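MarR family transcriptional regulator
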Amino acid sequence: MTETPARDRTDPAAPYAELGRQLWAVGAINREMGRSLPHDCPPATLGLISVLSRKGEQRMGGLAELLGVDISVASRYAAHAVERGWVERTPDPADKRSRLLRVTASGEALLAELSLRYTDALARYLADWSAADVGHLNDLLFRLRTSFDSCRSRPAEPAD
């Protein structure tokens, strides 16, 4: 088992600095995992398809907000997914000038295949971890994500 790096226990910011380093390293793990994606499915496109699969059909503005990107960026991602048949655009019945984006059966199949690949890779890389350790990591990562979600939904503090 790998040992946790030594920490300066006198500096109250030290645990947060170490967490920052660990999260930076997680980004490298994500990039490595992303290399298993098909060449024509960059991570951004996969993110768009995944959001649409989870949240259901969306207008472009709502999708951009869910992705945390500018509408022009979301539009490029969507165009890429539409060209490959993973997402379709349909008229919005509530506003005929707008279009709704939704995942196609091909997009859902892609998500299922890539989810299986990702799960298999994690199982291989973490084969020496106990189920309890994996569960504990899941719990902590969920808690971390939830903390950041609550920060985004709070209004900004007024400046002095």
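thats it. The helical segments are 14-34, 43-55, 60-67, 71-83, 105-125, 131-153. The first helix runs from residue 14 to 34. bye
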